[in-house]
Write a structure and sequence with these properties.
The complex is a heterodimer of chains A (about 240) and B (about 80).
Chain A lengths: L3 E4 L5 H12 L3 E6 L3 H13 L4 E5 L5 H14 L5 E4 L14 H29 L2 E6 L2 H5 L5 H21 L4 E8 L5 H4 L3 H9 L9 H12 L10 E4 L6
Parallel strand pairs in A: 1-2, 1-4, 2-3, 4-5, 5-6, 6-7
Helix pairs in contact in A: 1-2, 1-9, 3-4, 4-6
Chain B lengths: L2 H16 L20 H15 L5 H4 L5 H13 L1
Helix pairs in contact in B: 1-2, 1-4
Classes of the chains: A alpha/beta (about 240), B mainly alpha (about 80).
Chain lengths: ~240, ~80
């Protein structure tokens, strides 16, 4: 059976690494992006350059109509979606006492509402096929909490509750639903924290360094593979031993 | 659409979508108790009915359904309405 994946927020960072990794495993990949069309095209070119199949699909994943249109297009061009990786996410940090409600809403909407919308859109075909893999990218912030990230941590902890509920809802149809919770990974998101902050963070990581996007992607690839067929409802922490 | 046509299509969907045994399906068969269809299975059937008959079945009405015959009645009402 031909595997077809949608990876949200795949134009850069962890999403990009996941798209490239899945394509290398023979999966046809829809590279979703919100606004970085040039970057998404680069990911598609990289995948096609190594003999894989990929298309770039624009959609604001917190917009229900845009999500529906994206899944229609993917089904038309690549076939029924068998793997969904809900990766798209943003940060908008601040202490709650100084946080604007718009900051709260925007992060929850992009990070959590999107997971509900994309899962719902992908699920119908998966239930019918009695086969599917859903992998949600959470964060160690959602597991342990992080000052200045109440909005982000709430969205990422919400993903874990969603993951467990969905695992129970659709397990009887051969669909597994898992979460991956990365720690500090070398991406634009952590680069924005500055060298001091990432240096201090590295001091608390058992492995003594930040992780790479590929080190997260390989775990997602495993959860999408046949080898992980009996794992569902789990949150796999990939943080180099930060949250111990 | 004739009631017999709806009944035939309903039976076909129950066999194809939910993998039920055709011989066990009767008009008064109850989805949960007699046919062992779980809650997700009922949702699958509703989606299939909506797709195949071009009707919309709101949750409040779907919750009232217990038997195959009631589902046929509901589809007929929607098509006539």
């Amino acid at each position: 059976m031909e595997e077809v994946a949608v990876v949200t927020g795949a134009s850069r960072g962890i999403g990009r690494a996941i798209a490239v990794h899945l394509a290398r495993e023979g999966v046809a990949v829809a590279v979703n992006y919100a606004s970085s069309s040039g970057k998404a095209d680069e990911v598609v070119a990289e995948i096609e350059g190594s003999g894989g199949t990929a298309i770039a699909v624009q959609a604001d994943v917190s917009d229900e109509a845009a999500v529906a249109a994206m899944f229609d297009r993917v089904a038309e061009e690549l076939g029924p979606v068998t793997i969904l990786v809900n990766n798209a996410g943003i940060t908008d940090d601040g202490l709650v006492l100084r946080m604007g409600t718009d900051q709260w809403d925007r992060v929850i909407s992009t990070n959590l509402r999107s997971v509900y919308l994309c899962t719902k859109a992908a699920l119908r075909g998966m239930v019918r096929a009695k086969h599917g893999r859903i992998i949600n990218i959470s964060s160690v912030s959602g597991v342990s909490g992080n000052p200045g990230q109440a909005n982000y941590a709430a969205s990422k902890a919400g993903i874990i509750g969603f993951t467990k509920s969905m695992a129970k809802e659709v397990g009887s149809r051969g669909i597994t639903v898992n979460a991956v919770a990365p720690g500090f990974i070398e991406t634009d998101m952590t680069e924005a924290l500055g060298e001091d902050a990432t240096g201090r963070a590295a001091g608390q990581i058992s492995l003594g360094r930040l992780g790479t996007p590929e080190e997260v992607a390989s775990v997602v690839g495993y959860l999408a593979s046949d080898g992980a067929s009996y794992i569902t409802g789990q949150t796999i922490v990939v943080d180099g031993g930060l949250a111990l | 659409m004739e009631r017999s046509e709806i009944e035939a299509k309903m039976k076909e969907l129950l066999v194809e979508e939910l993998g039920l045994d055709e011989d066990k399906i009767a008009n008064d068969s109850r989805f949960e108790e007699d046919l062992e269809v779980d809650s997700l299975g009922v949702v699958e059937l509703l989606m299939a009915l909506e797709d195949n008959f071009g009707v919309q079945i709101p949750d409040e009405e779907a919750e009232q359904l217990t038997t195959v015959g009631e589902a046929v009645d509901l589809v007929q009402k929607k098509l006539d309405g």
